């Protein structure tokens, strides 16, 4: 990671890549955080970059290439809020330019690209952290602590029922709910259960009244390596009795159960809910964890190796829905590893990928090594 370089004593200078909807939210979060200094905004659409810069009320540099802009403005890191298809090229270029990267979810468009990014982080020695904004929720942290007190987990369920009318690409995708939204819940499930996925079985459908071209409803069952089962049922065309955007959750465990409506404090069945301490949440919390990690060399939650299994759950669920079969996560990871080796253009990244005993082992080994021994 970034341990070899002198670490900045003052605010961390960063360039924002991507000035769309999330880019503007990141711009506000960066401007609000005294530990970070926004030195530039890059977007292939210069007009969007300029509009975001103007909204800051400061004279922020703009450009179309994040790495060039970082070099010109002295930035040490990039916040990548571009479209998913640009995550791999933008983040790879930044890592090999010696910049640390905080990227929006999903880590990349495919698991193969995600593995390439994990290897690129290793080879470049830079930090690449993925911001899963819904994981950075103090209520979810409280739920996790309650879950740990309940002993072995049996079944974890998420219900997600909303009826947003986005227009645009989401209404044209084959699997809008699974690909664009469910990763938040899948990622939170891994965090809550402190367990990794083993297999996925998923069915999707599109209700007759749906305004989406693809399947807007899905039910997925994951076997986890702890023995627990995680079940996700959701729909993006579900008018009435809508759930929180976080979904509604129930954990059934060895010594009881706990429920969370996604918006308020989780409620254990063993007694009253303890109050949840106020703390930064969402992208503001992810940004703080990232800057702390750059300064200290510690491994933050969401470091690329730790994040990849959340995307593997999405890919496994989509594959299961398409084939009607249960899909092993190892088959997704192994197939992605082979594809990454076939398509990787960077010789050092290809050599790193070739040295992995398996994708699952490489992800776990690096994750564990970094967690165990921060520099
Ligand atoms: N955490 C959340 O809750 C949440 C919510 C919405 C979106 N997202 C994620 O945020 C990311 C951006 O989504 P959005 O809704 O802002 O999309 P958007 O289409 O509104 O904006 C993306 C921007 O990236 C720019 N861009 C594309 N390629 C680029 C490149 N190579 N270099 C620089 N800029 C480039 C586009 O011109 C566009 O302005 C996606 O990964 C999405 O999944 C996360």
TrEMBL record:
Cited Pfam families: GFO_IDH_MocA, GFO_IDH_MocA_C3
Coiled coil: none
Keyword Oxidoreductase: yes
InterPro entries the UniProt entry points to: Gfo/Idh/MocA-like_OxRdtase_N, Gfo/Idh/MocA_oxidoreduct, GFO_IDH_MocA-like_dom, NAD(P)-bd_dom_sf
Keywords recorded for this protein, A-Z: Oxidoreductase
Top-level taxonomic group: Bacteria
Domain Gfo/Idh/MocA-like oxidoreductase N-terminal: 14-130
Residue span(s) of domain GFO/IDH/MocA-like oxidoreductase: 172-252
PANTHER family: CONSERVED EXPRESSED OXIDOREDUCTASE (EUROFUNG), CONSERVED EXPRESSED OXIDOREDUCTASE (EUROFUNG)-RELATED
Family of this protein: Belongs to the Gfo/Idh/MocA family.
Annotated protein name in UniProt: Gfo/Idh/MocA family oxidoreductase
Lineage, uppermost ranks: Bacteria, Bacillati, Actinomycetota, Actinomycetes, Pseudonocardiales
């Amino acid at each position: 990671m970034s341990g070899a370089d002198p670490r900045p004593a003052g605010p961390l200078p960063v360039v924002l890549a991507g000035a769309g909807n999330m880019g503007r939210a990141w711009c506000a979060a960066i401007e609000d955080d005294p530990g970070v200094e926004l030195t530039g905004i890059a977007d292939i659409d210069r007009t969007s970059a300029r509009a975001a810069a103007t909204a800051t009320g400061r004279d922020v540099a703009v450009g179309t290439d994040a790495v060039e802009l970082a070099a010109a403005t002295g930035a040490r890191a990039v916040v990548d809020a571009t479209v998913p298809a640009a995550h791999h090229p933008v983040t790879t270029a930044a890592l090999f330019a010696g910049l640390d990267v905080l990227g929006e979810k999903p880590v990349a468009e495919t698991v193969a690209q995600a593995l390439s990014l994990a290897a690129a982080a290793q080879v470049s020695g830079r930090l690449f952290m993925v911001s899963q904004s819904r994981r950075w929720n103090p209520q979810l942290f409280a739920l996790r602590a309650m879950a740990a007190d309940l002993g072995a987990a049996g079944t974890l369920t998420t219900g997600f029922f909303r009826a947003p009318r986005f227009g645009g690409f989401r209404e044209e995708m084959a699997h809008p709910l699974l690909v664009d939204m469910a990763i938040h819940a899948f990622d939170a499930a891994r965090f809550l259960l402190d367990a990794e996925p083993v297999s996925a079985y998923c069915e999707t459908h599109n209700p007759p009244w749906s305004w989406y071209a693809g399947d807007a409803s899905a039910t997925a069952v994951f076997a986890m390596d702890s023995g627990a089962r995680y079940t996700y049922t959701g729909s993006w065309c579900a008018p009435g009795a809508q759930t929180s955007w976080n979904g509604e959750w129930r954990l059934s465990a060895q010594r009881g159960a706990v429920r969370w409506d996604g918006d308020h404090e989780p409620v254990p069945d063993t007694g009253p809910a303890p109050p949840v301490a106020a703390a930064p949440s969402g992208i503001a919390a992810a940004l703080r964890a990232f800057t702390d990690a750059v300064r200290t060399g510690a491994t933050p939650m969401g470091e690329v190796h730790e994040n990849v299994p959340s995307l593997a759950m999405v890919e496994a669920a989509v594959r299961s829905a398409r084939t009607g079969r249960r899909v092993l996560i190892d088959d997704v990871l192994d197939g992605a590893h082979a594809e990454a080796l076939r398509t990787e253009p960077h010789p050092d990244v290809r050599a790193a990928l070739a040295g992995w005993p398996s994708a699952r082992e490489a992800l776990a080994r690096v994750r564990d090594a970094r967690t165990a021994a921060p520099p």
